[in-house]
């Protein structure tokens, strides 16, 4: 699908239709998404507040609908793609087997509990207990795909060691398939020279480092028994570009071994954690998106979407949200330089999304996530793909005769509004 894929040309498409129908059309034109975020009605069976518009009462069909939708979503995901689904505990255990069925249980990445209520703010005094959590289930299309992560910055004050060896050759050996050089105490010096890009960081291989770390395990299994006070260079134990890793065996004062890490390899990934806590955001969430964007149907914190979008996508990627609601996904995608296709079939919610877009365009989106201007002053690039874009995208031969008419069901009034909304 030819969506803009550079940060200079973000694009969003809001389709006010039933999501199943739109997904069929997206499949016809071979659309591909890096992330699909589904925040369906939670099948509460309740009909109050804004829910009376949201068909949250059709309990029987909910699971069937989600199953059909998930199969379509699977087809629409890129091989590197992720699906994330929000749900509360009532349907969590029904939803998991449905998603496992479509993606395969081994493509389940994890369960992310999302804390949305404060334990001291109990409003529902008739309930049996105070439920603080919702859940996010994340799947990947291929089981080898990893989240996008940032690397920890190296702490320069720790990279202060330099190793010097004498000219006399070390003893050479092969241990567990690796070439190993062993230096006697008189053949080397380890100096504290202060920070330089070539300096090393020293780790004592005790506790978790000795048992839960690859280098630690290697030391314990293969090097500890070599004896005390030796410097050992192990070739092929990767140390980000060096091609080897230095170890020092224990001595009378320090039983544990030591290994040295180069600055280059200090960039360990910071793995995302599943302790999401939005209890402080939720009470004022009605303000996110600006005036007119209050939404009483499980409006999600922008910070949650930011977390998800940043671990599952890169700038320029395309995201699909088949349950648009108040447009949180679109807003955060815009702020982080991603493209979206957002589907929403309820006219009231559709209007909220339009207001949110207007607020974004006019800089009136005062609450919620702040723009990251380093991303490229996203709001200046806010533009909407023409509503005919889907029909104009070249389709494969099987569907070329029948370009999808995504906007066919719009009323005349909405059409006028949309031609304004989508005009660049
Ligand atoms: C829980 S809300 C989504 C809230 C959204 N994540 C947000 O942060 O504002 C679910 C939305 O899905 C919409 N929806 C439900 N069934 C739909 C369908 N078949 N097609 C399109 N939208 C649908 C509802 O109208 C509702 O606005």
Report what the structure shows.
It contains ten helices and 16 strands. With 424 residues, it is an alpha/beta fold. It folds into two domains: 297 residues, Vaccinia Virus protein VP39 (Rossmann fold); 111 residues, no CATH class. The strands form three sheets. Strands 1-16-15-2-3-5-4-14 form an eight-stranded mixed beta sheet, sandwiched between helices. A six-stranded antiparallel beta sheet has the order 7-8-11-12-13-10, with helices on one face. Strands 6-9 form a two-stranded antiparallel ribbon. It is elongated and about 80 Å long. The protein starts with 11 loop residues before the first strand and ends with a helix. The protein binds S-adenosylmethionine (SAM). S-adenosylmethionine (SAM) binds next to loops.
List its traits.
16 strands; binds S-adenosylmethionine; 2 domains; 424 residues; Rossmann fold; disordered N terminus; single chain; alpha/beta; eight-stranded mixed sheet; disordered C terminus; six-stranded antiparallel sheet; 10 helices
């Amino acid at each position: 699908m030819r969506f803009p894929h550079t940060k200079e040309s973000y694009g969003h498409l809001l389709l006010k239709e039933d999501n199943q129908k739109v997904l069929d059309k997206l499949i016809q034109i071979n659309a591909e998404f890096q992330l699909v975020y589904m925040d369906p009605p939670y099948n509460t069976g309740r009909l109050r507040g804004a829910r009376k518009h949201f068909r949250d009462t059709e309990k029987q069909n909910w699971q069937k609908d989600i199953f059909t939708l998930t199969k379509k979503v699977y087809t629409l995901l890129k091989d590197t793609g992720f699906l994330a689904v929000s749900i509360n505990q009532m349907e969590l255990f029904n939803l998991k087997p449905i998603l496992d069925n479509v993606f395969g249980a081994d493509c389940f990445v994890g369960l992310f509990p999302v804390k949305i209520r404060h334990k001291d703010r109990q409003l529902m005094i008739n309930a049996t207990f105070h439920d603080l959590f919702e859940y996010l289930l994340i799947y990947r299309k291929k089981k080898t795909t990893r989240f996008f992560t940032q690397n920890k910055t190296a702490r320069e004050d720790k990279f202060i060691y330099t190793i010097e060896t004498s000219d006399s050759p070390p003893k050479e050996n092969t241990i567990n398939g690796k070439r190993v050089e062993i230096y006697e105490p008189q053949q080397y010096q380890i100096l504290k020279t202060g920070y330089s890009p070539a300096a090393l960081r020293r780790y004592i291989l005790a506790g978790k480092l000795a048992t839960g770390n690859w280098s630690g395990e290697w030391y314990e299994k293969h090097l500890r028994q070599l004896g005390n006070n030796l410097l050992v260079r192990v070739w092929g134990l990767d140390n980000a570009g060096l091609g080897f890793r230095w170890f020092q065996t224990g001595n009378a004062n320090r039983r544990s071994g030591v290994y040295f890490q180069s600055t280059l390899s200090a960039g360990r990934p910071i793995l995302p954690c599943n302790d999401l806590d939005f209890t402080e955001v939720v009470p004022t969430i009605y303000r996110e998106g600006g005036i007119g964007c209050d939404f009483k149907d499980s409006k999600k914190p922008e910070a949650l979407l930011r977390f998800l979008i940043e671990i599952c996508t890169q700038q320029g990627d395309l995201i699909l949200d088949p349950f648009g609601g108040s447009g949180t996904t679109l807003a955060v995608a815009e702020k982080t330089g991603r493209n979206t296709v957002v589907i929403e079939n309820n006219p009231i919610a559709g209007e909220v999304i339009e207001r949110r877009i207007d607020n974004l365009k006019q800089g009136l989106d005062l609450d919620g996530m702040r723009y990251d201007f380093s991303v490229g002053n996203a709001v200046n690039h806010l533009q909407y793909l023409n509503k005919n874009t889907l029909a104009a995208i070249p389709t494969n031969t099987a569907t070329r005769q029948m370009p999808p008419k995504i906007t066919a069901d719009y009323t005349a009034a909405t059409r006028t509004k949309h031609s304004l909304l989508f005009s660049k």
